[in-house]
């Protein structure tokens, strides 16, 4: 699964504020002097850009299946670029790594896919930093009578197959913590929720539109209610009267 560069650019400043700085510092402190960090689902290189100030001597291998996004990353980050399909072989992309990172990826993958990655990391004792994993929390201010309907349908859509098998969606943080701990890792979770104020109209418009589309796909019988909800929310966005919170968790695992 891939995302439009325009959407990634819209969310970039929100992501940057949401990331847990303490976990990132602990990740950096745990690594050798010149580590190789493999960033999975690297997109336009946002993760490497976020970590570089903490790890100026690190090398990065950016792995993604989207050539257009990797072309953007190549222009932004000094890194090895690897175009590959992560639904297949995982051993080659992480060969020689000291650590693995990923951002906004693990809620898109399936439990068996994650378990395969976790087993490889455990066998090589690779430090892991997985940021901005959705955890199912949503809040819109002001509230709307159909929020519950839309949020439930959206959560259902988050669990559909994104190319890796049925996605973990909002279950990702809990599943990752349980699986990694069972393999002997020390796991730390930290809140990295988005807090989006009314000034971010572009992001709000895209997010509400995407949420309504996903909810409608998951609950077609509720299409009329979901469309009316979207219309009410878009009016609020235009008036500068809507704010949004989206729950995420960052995860650090060490052996």
Largest sheet: 8 strands, mixed
The top level CATH class name: Alpha Beta
Rounded to an integer in angstroms, the radius of gyration calculated over CA atoms is: 18 Å
Shape: globular
| CATH architecture descriptor name | 3-Layer(aba) Sandwich
Provide a descriptive summary of the structure in words.
The protein is α/β, with parallel strands linked by helices and 255 residues long. The chain has one domain: Vaccinia Virus protein VP39 (Rossmann fold, 3-Layer(aba) Sandwich). Helices cover 43% and strands 22% of the residues. The chain contains 9 helices and 8 strands. Strand 1, helix 3 and strand 2 form a beta-alpha-beta unit. The chain is globular. The chain starts with a helix and ends with a strand. The relative contact order is 0.16. The mean pLDDT is 96.
Secondary-structure blueprint of this entry?
Blueprint lengths: L4 H14 L2 H9 L6 E5 L5 H6 L7 E6 L2 H10 L3 E4 L15 E5 L7 H14 L2 E15 L5 H12 L13 H11 L3 E6 L2 E3 L4 H18 L4 H16 L4 E12 L1
Parallel strand pairs: 1-2, 1-4, 2-3, 4-5
Antiparallel strand pairs: 5-8, 6-8, 7-8
Helix pairs in contact: 5-7, 6-8, 8-9
Short description:
By secondary structure, the protein is of the alpha/beta class. 43% of the residues lie in helices and 22% in strands.
Descriptive key words:
single chain; alpha/beta; Rossmann fold; 255 residues; 9 helices
């Amino acid at each position: 699964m891939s995302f439009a560069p325009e959407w990634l650019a819209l969310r970039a400043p929100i992501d940057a504020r949401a990331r847990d700085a303490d976990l990132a510092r602990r990740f950096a402190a745990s690594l050798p002097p010149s580590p190789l960090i493999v960033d999975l689902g690297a997109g336009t290189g946002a993760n490497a850009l976020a970590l570089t100030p903490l790890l100026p001597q690190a090398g990065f291998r950016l792995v993604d299946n989207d050539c257009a996004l990797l072309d953007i990353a190549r222009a932004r980050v000094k890194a090895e670029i690897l175009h590959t399909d992560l639904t297949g072989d995982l051993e080659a992309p992480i060969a020689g790594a000291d650590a693995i990172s990923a951002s906004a990826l693990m809620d898109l993958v399936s439990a068996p896919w994650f378990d395969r990655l976790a087993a490889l990391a455990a066998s090589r004792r690779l430090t892991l930093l997985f940021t901005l994993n959705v955890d199912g929390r949503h809040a819109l201010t002001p509230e709307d009578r159909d929020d519950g309907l839309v949020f439930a349908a959206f959560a259902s859509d988050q669990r559909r197959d994104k190319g890796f098998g049925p996605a973990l969606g909002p279950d990702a943080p809990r599943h990752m913590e349980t699986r990694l701990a069972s393999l002997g890792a020390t796991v730390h979770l930290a809140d990295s929720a988005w807090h989006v104020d009314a000034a971010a109209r572009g992001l709000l418009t895209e997010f509400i539109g995407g949420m309504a589309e996903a909810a409608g796909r998951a609950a077609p019988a509720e299409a009329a209610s979901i469309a009316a909800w979207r219309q009410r929310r878009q009016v609020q966005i235009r008036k500068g009267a809507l704010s949004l919170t989206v729950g995420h968790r960052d995860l650090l695992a060490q052996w």
